């Protein structure tokens, strides 16, 4: 491989092109403003990232269902949302030539217990985090009507994303979110057409992709984020991932991003519960290389990549696109620095607490702390203590929760009204 390939264009099956092989991967920014719309600080953050040299920016979770958010600071795009702020978000990301895709998601059962709204899953199987399990709501198994409505919600959000000026969407079917839950034999124990065989467990994802493709233009990119493995024994594994990629191939999918893990096994933060994925960088490279040898679709790999040397090793494995989240949160212009022969200006130290659930939460809080510094016109820093970041994050969550409850009660056509967490435990 030659070093210039990292900065060579990638032509997508839909006809669009990325000007290099570096992507800013999705992270949960938690920067919704009033009415769960993109806040000004979120728009300014993407303007900074767009100027950093990456060929593609993928947004953090944009939720398709107003009553189903991972946390109270999530952005919602549904049929009732005005598009002006979303259009400004897209324009900011694209101002310096990057493409911008909206990651669209439904959390399913991965909803905080204090949140109002609904907690749905393929089956009534709760998130198991040991002593931290009560932090999440207790899910109910989805009805056929709710499943069909969810497919429509994904399609509506994708259609609105295109209208707002985004270049594509990425359907989130990884990290234990709803579509990933349906794929998992540990979470999905249904006996109808949505459970059992992998073909049935993949039905919801495939129906979502088909529905999106019917309402967006052929040049609009449609990608899927998929676990290379769940890193839970008996769960979704690399052979399952290969089969799902083959199922996606005839559906006009442009790209499959590979990651791994879930809240129960946070391998995406380098902390799987089963001991695999121990590399300090490119956590899922070995699995991705195996999948790249047979994949009919271009693949993107995300997970722990920081150095240019590692990125080039990812491309050498047959992966088409290198995704980075934390590294670009800490060094927003990392792609430009690589082009100029430099490495990351700031590297965040991993949180290695023995409590993996708290460590994962603190890691995400540290990353969000860097994002907030950027929105204030400051540079990221590696000196923030994870306890400080976590406490600040939790305070912001509590303030946002009050606003979200008030907003949700005013929304039309609610599926279910749950004012407190007590009725959900």
Key features of this structure:
425 residues; eight-stranded parallel barrel; two-stranded antiparallel ribbon; 13 helices; disordered C terminus
Summarize the structure.
By secondary structure, this protein is of the alpha/beta class. The protein has helices at 40-50, 84-94, 144-164, 178-183, 198-201, 203-215, 238-248, 285-292, 308-316, 326-330, 334-339, 356-375, 386-409; strands at residues 10-11, 17-18, 22-24, 56-58, 62-63, 75-76, 99-105, 120-121, 140-141, 168-173, 221-227, 255-259, 299-302, 321-324. It has 13 helices and 14 strands.
List strands and helices in order, with pairings:
Blueprint: E1 10-11, E2 17-18, E3 22-24, H1 40-50, E4 56-58, E5 62-63, E6 75-76, H2 84-94, E7 99-105, E8 120-121, E9 140-141, H3 144-164, E10 168-173, H4 178-183, H5 198-201, H6 203-215, E11 221-227, H7 238-248, E12 255-259, H8 285-292, E13 299-302, H9 308-316, E14 321-324, H10 326-330, H11 334-339, H12 356-375, H13 386-409
Parallel strand pairs: 3-4, 3-14, 4-7, 5-6, 5-7, 7-10, 8-9, 10-11, 11-12, 12-13, 13-14
Antiparallel strand pairs: 1-2
Helix pairs in contact: 1-2, 1-12, 3-6, 12-13
């Amino acid at each position: 491989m030659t070093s210039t390939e990292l900065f060579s264009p990638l032509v997508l099956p839909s006809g669009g092109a990325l000007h290099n092989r570096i992507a800013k991967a999705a992270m949960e920014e938690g920067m919704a403003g009033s009415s769960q719309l993109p806040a000004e600080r979120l728009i300014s953050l993407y303007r900074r990232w767009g100027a950093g040299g990456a060929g593609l920016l993928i947004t953090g979770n944009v939720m398709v269902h107003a009553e189903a958010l991972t946390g109270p600071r999530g952005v919602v795009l549904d049929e009732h949302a005005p598009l002006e702020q979303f259009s400004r978000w897209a324009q900011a990301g694209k101002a310096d030539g990057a493409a911008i895709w909206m990651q669209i998601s439904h959390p399913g059962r991965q909803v905080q217990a204090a949140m109002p709204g609904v907690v749905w899953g393929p089956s009534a199987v709760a998130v198991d985090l040991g002593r931290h399990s009560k932090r999440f709501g207790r899910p109910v198994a989805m009805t056929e009507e709710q499943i069909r409505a969810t497919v429509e919600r994904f399609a509506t959000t994708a259609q609105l994303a295109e209208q707002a000026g985004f270049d594509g969407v990425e359907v989130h079917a990884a990290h234990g979110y709803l579509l990933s839950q349906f794929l998992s034999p540990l979470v999905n124990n249904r006996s109808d057409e949505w459970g059992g065989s992998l073909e049935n467990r993949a039905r919801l994802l495939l129906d979502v992709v088909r529905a999106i493709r019917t309402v967006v233009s052929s040049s609009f990119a449609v990608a899927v984020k998929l676990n290379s493995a769940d890193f839970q024994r008996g769960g979704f594994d690399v052979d399952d991932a290969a089969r799902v990629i083959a199922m996606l191939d005839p559906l006009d999918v442009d790209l499959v991003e590979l990651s791994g893990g879930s809240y129960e096994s946070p391998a995406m933060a380098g902390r799987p519960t089963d001991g695999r994925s121990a590399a300090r960088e490119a956590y899922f490279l070995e699995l991705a290389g195996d999948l790249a040898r047979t994949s009919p679709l271009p693949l993107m790999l995300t997970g722990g990549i920081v150095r240019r040397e590692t990125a080039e090793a990812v491309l050498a494995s047959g992966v088409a696109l290198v995704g980075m989240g934390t590294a670009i949160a800490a060094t927003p212009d990392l792609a430009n620095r690589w082009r100029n022969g430099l490495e990351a200006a700031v590297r965040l130290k991993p949180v290695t607490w023995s409590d993996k659930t708290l460590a994962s939460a603190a890691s995400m809080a540290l990353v969000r702390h860097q994002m907030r510094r950027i929105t204030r016109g400051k540079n990221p820093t590696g000196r923030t203590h994870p306890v400080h970041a976590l406490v600040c994050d939790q305070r912001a969550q509590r303030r946002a929760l009050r606003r979200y409850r008030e907003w949700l009660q005013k929304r039309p056509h609610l599926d279910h009204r749950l004012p407190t967490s007590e009725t959900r435990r």
